[in-house]
UniProtKB/TrEMBL annotation, chain A:
Protein name: TonB-dependent receptor plug domain-containing protein
SUPFAM superfamilies noted in UniProt: Porins
Keyword Transport: yes
Membrane association type: Multi-pass membrane protein
Family, per entry: Belongs to the TonB-dependent receptor family.
Sorted UniProt keywords: Cell outer membrane, Membrane, Receptor, Signal, Transmembrane, Transmembrane beta strand, Transport
Keyword Transmembrane: yes
One GO-annotated biological process of the protein: siderophore transmembrane transport
GO cellular component term of the entry, any: cell outer membrane
Pfam entry (one): Plug
Location of this chain's protein in the cell: Cell outer membrane
Domain of life: Bacteria
Species lineage: Bacteria, Pseudomonadati, Bacteroidota, Sphingobacteriia, Sphingobacteriales
Domain TonB-dependent receptor plug per the UniProt entry, residue ranges: 52-155
Amino acid sequence: MYELTKACITVIFIYSSIGISVFGQETQTRPDSLIRQLEEITIEAKSIKKKLEDSPFAVQVLDMRKEYSHSGDITNLLNHSLGVKTRADGSLGSSVQVNLAGLQGKAIKVFKDGLPIELYGHSFNLGTISSNMLERIEIYKGAMPVYLASDALGGGINLITRKPIKNSAVFSYELASYNTHRATANLFITHPDRTSAYTGINASFNYSDNNYPVHAPFYDVSTARQSYHTTKRFHDIARSSYGEWYAGLRNKHWADDLRLTLIYSDFYKQIQNDAEMVRVYGEAFSKENNYATLLSFRKVLFENRLQLHLNATYSHFNTRFVDTATVRYNWNGQVQSSNMPIGEINRGNDQRLEFHLYSTRLHAKYAIASQQYLELSNLQQYQHRKGTDPLGTISVLDQIDILGIPAVYRKNVLALAYNAQWLQKTVESIFSIKYYKYKTTGYTTDKYNFAWQSSKKGDLFGYLAAVKWDNDSFLLKLSYEFANRLPDEYEIFGDGVMLKENLDLKPEKSHNVNLNIQQRLLISKQQLDFTANLFYRRVKDIIFLQLDIPFNRYINYEEFNIKGVEVETRYSPNPHISGGFNLTYQDIRRINIRESMFRNLEGSRIPNIPYFFGNAFLSLSTANLYKKKDRAHFQWNLNYVHRFFLKAIPRNQEPSLFGPVQDFQTSLIIPRDGRPGQVANDLALTYDFSSKKTSISAECKNIANAKLYDNFNVQRQGRTFHLKLVYQII
Amino acid sequence: MDMKIKHIRSILLAFVASLVLFSCSKDDKPNVENNKKDDLPQQETWVIFNGNADWSGGIYAIKENKSKNINLSGKQFYQLGYSAGGRIVGKTLYKLNGATSTELGITKFAIDPSQQVSHAGFLATPTNSYETNTLIVSDTEGYYWNLGAGGLKIQTFNPSSMQRTGEIDFSSLSNGSSYEAAGQLILAKRDDKLYVDIQHGTRTKAWQVKPNDLSVKIAVYNLSSKTIENTTTYNGATNLGLFADHVLWSIDEVTKDLYMVAIGDMVTQTPTSKILRIKQGENQFDESFELKINDFQYPSDFNRLFAHNGKIYTTISSRPTSYYGGGQHGVSYRQDIWYWTEIDAITRKAKRLDIPVDNFYAYQNPFLHQGEIYFLSNNSTDNFSGVTQYNPKTGETKETFRLEGSGRLMGFHIFND
């Protein structure tokens, strides 16, 4: 085992020494000879994965190259990962939140190649991205590296897109239940004689009718009685397309890599129901068209002591939200009432918004001594929003269209870090400080109801420290971070109609502690991996939507204490069989309630967040089945989400983990049919042809057709079938 | 290999130790409740709605364990996503909407001898947007408004079976306005007549319907002859009511006069909020009577109403306030400014009652029970959430009970066993 570990470390060392280091989480380019060496070393991604996972941060890396044959978007993969729970408002095309170590929503930031994902538009989001678009996914629980300079409160997810180093053309197509189609194309070309120039395309297309059956309330017009029946969704079509073309030069004396990327994407989504699946809509939809330009520059200077990476982006989004129906539908898609007030969802919207986003990011890493680095990162973002909505945003007070007043949001996050390795690299430490600054302007009113354009700005510091000890096959990590999430422009200024501004809104703050233990045992061909994470979060000034009449508004209100544990065990008796399980328990509780009359909920669990979930999995593979070098894989995954409540329950009346609900009556529980939790079983069978160019997979998700629910009470698909083809042209 | 096993053992030990450390809790204190019975009525069941900061809460039924200081911790409850809107008719509890505020309709609850509250029926109004209005007269007679079934129609239903039984059509009162409604805010029954508010106006994203003119209208429907007897108009007042789960009308059970509140425009606070009257036996507004809020406070409005024996019980704010005012600090009307006040309908003299100030998070009107009037109050000044009872004959007030660290009091009802 020692020999194997040593070999592994040697490979990493070789890998690092030939220049394929992780810098800005993207592979740097090097001369052809070295590239050829790399091609022979087929463990490139594994090395990056290992290097990242061996960093002092609590990070988990998913190697997407193993998943290219599998169907669906990446939310399924994330859900199978240790400690990750995604929350969606529906199926394909719905917005997706990620829960990491007890925090979710805006507390978790998502990046694409190190840049905030919001710069790419809705067509590139967790609910639409196929695994074929990505090289790997980095999941940071808590503290994050400084090059991801951001105001994430509880970690983030960095999606690393495919970056081939030799000519390649890969196409994938998936056909699935409910008229679901997913296709991706990845092309990378270098000139055979002038390898410094390269170009490529990454594209994806998603479509689904999403007309899966749901259990929905029906209303008898003559008796006004309500009963539940199974019916097909009828207004939930989602369609997204995304295409990026890039071209670049590499290995020039003035730049190691200079790349220009142009992106076009669009998105269309019908809206079928509210989050509690009580109200049904038949005409409302949203759509958008997005354009983005990215420029990236990399250079290593001063005999490899200074690594420099600059990014600049400009994005232009046009979005529409239309809710102008004057009829109401039932769950069969029939008009139930006519001549109703305009708007099925919220009294009518015909909203058009135009966004201009600019961002720059500088990341510099300087080796001040052997195994000691200083890192500097600065992310600057600017957003300008203007629009119109003749139905929706007419100020009640002064009858102006509030969207016509530009809303501007500026944010700057500066981070400085010191990174050092000690004791023959067995110990690595990172200290970092972050400086957050923001300013926003928008529509507001004063207490005399005069409307005017106001501004709000603020700045504050955050810091982190992380250390890891890596001893042979044992890895121990400890990190602490004081993180902040800045309020965004919507939270500060609202919409002027239903949501009132709050210029006193403060950033959310969190003290994050992570303890991570990893152990690997290798005995002959057997491999046993054990991972455990303990995490603690103390979150203050949580931004809470206070519902009221006639205005809602965001306020800093709550304080949470989060304690959690995640464990995962993987066992592989030989290279053809592997299996294991993971479990996550997160105790997210409200503390220090300010108003004494509400102290009945002191220590109560935060509702609508799953707190106990996990997976079991088994993978079998065999080779030379029909032809030499062909390969077949079988995979089974069981996903379990324990019941959770949609509204707070006093702590002393909480049922025990598996005990019955007996101290109260409630229908505000998921699932509400008495099951202790939701179980989904997925099966996948993949066949890689011997040519290595083609693979085909057949999958059945939720084979037991179990009733599954997601955010609030949204019903998910039952049993679905997927057929996917991946073809590598060159 | 042995080394490795020991190594793993030590890791697991540390891990378990950490789990134990992490699971320590400091707030497992027993609940201490003052169970002093005093003169608390033993044959009454108290139905209490409590509410949290996000408006969720529960319905509690309390009989044996009544106390002056009620801690709801550990007591059986029925959970609600939006905790308000309860009404007792006989011994049956009804509530507007379902467990969540998006389940639009009327829910009926059963309360068993062990004080367990359970769902006992639901009448759906799915195409409304929040504003279902209802009047439940008896176990067999009920009315409600459902925009989806026609804005100018009142639906009838049987509360026993919780089934719609028909409708009363007011479409003849249409004047072609883009928004029209009959009974959306006021559904009152006196003798054999229904008093129904009529709205002609336009609807936007704002909370209120904008009326075509500065007047309010009431249609009087004779339930025996099944005809609209009259439509009466009062000029210089608008918007008869405020929120759907909070009716702003009251019939004085002694004088049989019907009173109602015209809120006015929530934004401009004009016309000024008024209390209007239709006297016993009359089918039209009493032009000689109006109570204007600016005689007491301005800008402000009347937002609660109960009439008994020629007296009107409402709240008067201690300082000017408005729904849309408050600047960056949000709504200002949810503050400890609302004082329970008795106004003599004849002399118009007002008397502030010795009842804790209220912040208008709970909408429930006062009610009469065995000769005493019960008032709900919540305030942060004294951290009070409770009920005060007032004897209108003697003028004495007495605290019925207060909640102890159990959320806001969002509703309170009594029925005798």
